[in-house]
Design brief:
With 146 residues, the protein is α+β, with helices and mostly antiparallel strands. It has one domain: Hotdog Thioesterase (Thiol Ester Dehydrase, Chain A, Roll). Helix content is 27%, strand content 39%. The longest helix has 17 residues.
């Protein structure tokens, strides 16, 4: 994609995350994108915790899924009728509790096939401590012009 298209795609990704009720409810926001890369922030919200202000694993898995999907969408224009995407698989490995703080997820495309995109996602706190790691397999279908 040309740089203008990339900038427009990033704006559409950010808007989509803001508009989706689930990601808005969880407190996700797009921080930055690059070629094959996306970074999201998950704001700490008491509603997303278990005991002792620990972030629920489902919220972390959702962050991993969304970040992997956004990294995949850096390879095709999101929010158009030409392309359709969906998650094929998500894995989450919880390495350390997220307690009472925001966290960040960085997703990187490992391989892009014709339709299938493999991503690696790392979740850290503001200090860079690795809290979780996951993989997202995402599918983007080109429906052609029209």
């Amino acid at each position: 994609m040309a740089e203008t298209d990339v900038n427009e795609n990033t704006k559409r990704m950010a808007k989509l995350i803001e508009m989706m009720p689930y990601t808005r409810h969880l407190g996700m926001e797009l921080v930055e994108t690059g070629e094959g890369y996306a970074k999201l922030r998950l704001r700490f919200q008491k509603e997303n915790t278990t005991a002792a202000d620990a972030l629920h694993g489902g919220a972390i898995a959702s962050l991993i899924d969304t970040t992997g999907a956004m990294a995949a969408w850096t390879t095709a224009p999101i929010g158009t009728t030409r392309y359709f995407g969906s998650t094929v698989s998500v894995s989450a490995n919880y390495l350390s509790a997220v307690i009472g703080e925001d966290c960040f997820a960085e997703g990187r495309v490992l391989k892009r096939g014709k339709e299938i995109i493999y991503t690696d996602v790392r979740v850290t706190n503001d200090a860079g401590k690795l809290l979780a790691q996951g993989n997202v397999i995402y599918r983007i279908v080109d429906r052609g012009e029209g």
